[in-house]
Specification:
253 residues, alpha/beta, Rossmann fold, 7-stranded parallel sheet, 8 helices, 17% strand
Length: 253
């Protein structure tokens, strides 16, 4: 007897077709990969970044609708950017910012303030300026981390931000409802920023993770991007923190 013919795969409509996705920090790394994935799902893209040349190159690559080159930690520029957006957008993802390392008791107070501003205050400012622009059931999506959940010398401020961000996310989800607010907490992701921070120790770190992570590979920006787009499209998700670290928290180091 001949086997029954297999059913042809059903055509899947793009999940973000016609929706507008704003990516703050969209010129490289996780932000760029999220923009690429969102575009593949039919989204219109608005990208921001600090370096105008890098930003334009990224925008050309993913076919972005528009760009804005500025420093998102400048609150006045951030406010102007959101005021200049179309009347309604669907999703905002924030990947700007970087970890701050150093002993807290020795850190310059301006550097300590910047560490908090770049994450917690940025979340609050984005929520304040974006809330009137995002359609109901759209989402504000922030990036955090998992590495700071263990205390350690030199990561005190990073740990503080790591612990505070999920609670801030949950409270913003209540205040901004029905706009959704979520947080992605990543472990080590193989980005240009990781390369910059680790320098000549990068390959050793990659090897260590390949040998110790339960997934036996290093988490890539595309992995985080896939999660980000899922959170945008699943309208039942709000106020939550989604870990993506390949099981890094389950093993030492």
């Amino acid at each position: 007897m001949s086997p029954a013919p297999s059913a042809a795969p059903a055509h899947r409509a793009p999940e973000l077709l016609g929706q507008t996705v704003v990516v703050l920090g969209g010129s490289a790394g996780i932000g760029f990969e999220t923009a690429r994935r969102a575009r593949a799902e039919g989204a219109n893209l608005i990208l921001t970044g600090r370096n105008a040349e890098n930003l334009q190159r990224a925008a050309d690559d993913v076919g972005a609708q528009s760009t804005a080159a500025f420093d998102v930690s400048d609150h006045a520029q951030l406010e102007r950017f959101f005021k200049g957006l179309p009347a309604q957008i669907d999703h905002v993802m924030v990947t700007a910012g970087r970890p701050h390392y150093g002993r807290m008791i020795e850190m310059d107070l301006k550097d300590a303030q910047r560490a908090l501003d770049d994450h917690l205050l940025l979340m609050l400012m984005v929520a304040r300026h974006a809330s009137g622009k995002v359609r109901p059931s759209g989402t504000l999506l922030f990036m955090g981390g998992t590495g700071g959940r263990r205390p350690g010398i030199g990561i005190g401020l990073t740990s503080t931000v790591t612990v505070a961000s999920p609670m801030l996310t949950a409270n913003l989800a209540l205040e901004l409802a029905p706009v959704r607010v979520n947080l992605i907490a990543a472990g080590f992701v193989d980005t240009g920023l990781s390369a910059e921070l680790l320098g000549d120790q990068l390959e050793a770190r990659r090897t260590q993770l390949r040998n110790t992570l339960p997934i036996r590979r290093v988490v890539q920006p595309s992995d985080v991007a896939a999660l980000a787009v899922h959170i945008m499209t699943n309208t039942a998700l709000t106020g939550a923190t989604f870990d993506i670290d390949g099981g890094q928290q389950l093993v030492a180091g």
